[in-house]
Design a protein that fits this description.
16 helices; about 450 residues; about 35% helix; Rossmann fold; single chain; D-amino Acid Aminotransferase, Chain A, domain 1
Length: about 450
Amino acid sequence: MFEKVLVANRGEIAVRIIRACKELNIRTVAVYSEVDANSMHVQMADEAICIGKSPSSESYLRIDRIISAAEIADVDAIHPGYGFLSENAHFAEVCESCNIRFIGPQARAMNALSDKAVSRALAKKAGVETPPGSEGIVEKEQDALIVAKRIGYPVMIKAVAGGGGRGMRIAHNDISLVKGFHTARAEAEKAFGNSGVYIEKFIENPHHIEIQILGDSKGKIIHLGERDCSVQRRNQKLIEESPSPLLENRFKKLREKIGKAAVRIAEAARYTNAGTVEFIVDDHGNYYFLEVNKRIQVEHPVTEEVTGVDLVRAQIEIAMGEPLRISQGDIEIKGHAIECRINAEDPFDDFRPSPGRIEMYYQPGGRGVRMETHAYAGYTIPPTYDSMIGKLIVTGKDRRDAIDRMNRALNEYLITGVKTTISFQQAIMQDPNFRRGVYSTNFVEQLLGGARRGLIEEKA
């Protein structure tokens, strides 16, 4: 049993991890940047250590400072959360060399899935289809043009490292490909310190389906069903739900196939701990492997709600060397769960971030409502980090019940002082196509286009 865990993250995920540790009677150590001195995770932890100034490059991305804090606090393990250093194999190796357990996949598995291009090759070896595209990283724009000509437009330029929609561009012709190629490389270098990109065929009207996996140190790997993450803006998720309405309504037999494919990929990588295998599904039921997220996901609560499995607790127990207590046959999806990411952004101004001080804060409650947040009245959202205020998760006996409950909860949610995505997500819950489960990754663009047209007509 761990006695003390350092949480190498901030925001709502740090709060989530601290709560899981408290339930296991494990003491916690928070690290924080100067701007996060009054953050909730700092107040909740048993100990807190400042590791630098507000830029993440001077705090949450500094391996040396995090390890120093861990050694000063004499911790048994480090939980990296998501983002920052969570998928950094070198960080995992440094932890192990310092006799500090890394609560996540082993460096070996991370290296086997070190970037999206390497992961694609591993998926092919595991017998899982990938979208047509380049064989590995594309270094020159001329090579990118050759690949695009071979597979046909439109194509997607994608960073091999990181996530969150950064380092990604869609190209419909040679001109937009050249521009997008250089823009994506520059963005990827800035965000991840790795400018590598690859090219793949862009699937029209794609559905983003991901499979939650868990693997223990004994080699046992299971999946916990799917999440539908197709409601996105600029390739960043806004709403996630489980089970997927696409699979429920049109391709029920696909659920088992995708689940088994995810496990095969994880087995090929000898994966341990929690992870997510992402797929894209077209309108004909064809599915293609995208990548493996080697960490806990932002949207993990929807899986927890429909399976009853505490994924963060499972992460900690696996890192302690305990075998999985559940088997594949034990996993049963009950009810329906939806998560809305509440961001400090203006959805009608291209989702421009809206940092600042929260004046009033009242979060919803009631039956079937769960809130994961680090925000409170008087809290100042810094401009330095991700704009997410929190995650609102609801559960219902079926999808219609969950949508109605989410609509009610969003209506209760009161935040003043900053702009938020709450009203936009209310509009999504009331949209006829969303309620029918008829949507793909271009849904938000279409909805915003309609909203803008309505505003123009109203002004006219």
